[in-house]
Amino acid sequence: MDSGLILICFIAYTALIFVIAFVTSRKAKNDSYFIGERKSSWPIVAYGMIGASLSGVTFISIPGDVYHSGFSYMMVVFGYLLGYAIIATVLLPVYYKLKLTTIYTYLQQRFGNISYRTGSTFFIISKLLGAAGRLFLVAYVLQKFVFDAWNVPFAVTATIFVGLIVLYTFKGGIKTIIWTDTLQTTFMILALIICFFMITKSLNIGFSGMIAKIFEHDYSKMIVTDWNSRLHYLKQFFGGAFIAVTMTGLDQDMMQKNLSCKDLKSAQKNMFMMSSCLIPVNFLFLLLGVALYIFAESQGIAIPAQTDELFPLIMLKYLGPVAGIVFMIGLISAAYSSGDGALTALTTSFCIDFLGFDDKRKELSEEKKKNIRIKVHFSFAIIMILLILAFNKLNDNSVITTIFMIAGYTYGPLLGLFALGLFTKLQLKDKYVPFVAIIAPIICYFLNMIFPFGFALIIVNGAITFLGLLIISKKKIG
Asked: pTM for the complete prediction?
């Protein structure tokens, strides 16, 4: 596919996003940016969160990772259902009862300022690394199939991509993202469906024939019973449940969208609707993954060393310009939906949790807060660009695996902190909390070298953090 045509698609889609941003950000205030004035419609939020949950990594990396993992990822997705049920019934009632803007304020009220800042810091580290990994993958594809042809350095590509996200989010924040996510989810799902049918048509075997070939293929294996494998179905299932709890329920990005709903009941409806939709969508990603490998085998296409490259390679090089356009729109939609929410959540967390943009900073005018918020927003964008460049230097694996590995190490301390707060009446020696939060992931790193935990790493990390916190607990409350 011609690189100029890809660029035109990119510009046209981005222009549409900017139109939505312009309309939704008019008369936007700080409250609009942080919490959408708590007026978001839950069906709109739920639908948009599908795209935000999947991201550009899922769009490319899940189909490619079928080569290594088969259909075993579906056990992770089934685990999500349990995790989202816990979020809806345990976490959301607490967040709404306390009327939180950032969810880490709970840790301040429960344990103290140091625990509060520790939780927020781990979120910021994890979200920066995770979002940079997701955006790197899209920037990498744009570089490989567009900008390399024009000798544009990767640093310029990454800067342009993140810069565009900054420009359409810095004013409206969550109020804008609720609506852009809706558009992006629509384009991503449509692209996924169309890509699958285009591959099927190119092989002249029909839909039923393709489904039959997929389930006959070795890659369609879902249940792995080897306990020593990181893909063991119990590790996948419970790992998926805790990944959902942490990467959604303890993640400011995802919860900020939920908290923009008008009340608890609406937020719970949002969570159950979103989680039920993720099963068929993720399953379609896996079907597409096997279809890609079937196509590659039939055409004698060598499997790239980086399996993330297979989907773009086939759609952009082998199936014609229409397939390329569909793929690029789907990919860009998925990337924007994860990048914009990450920047907004990072800015919100830093402004509220570290700069005190709440009742404690009444001396600051709304205009002053807005100016500071914009500076924070742009600062996080610069850090994200630098991290994307670092990913470009280090990338040697499936990005989806890297993202979940990062989550396992960085969200584990959050899981331990929130678990102790919600399920015990213990108080902590607040000043020692950062030491426990740092030591637990280090212990997990060495344990994981001996016994591969896979997606269950986050459970082990959370458990070790929980035990460490028990050691520094000092008294019961209430």
From this structure: 0.81
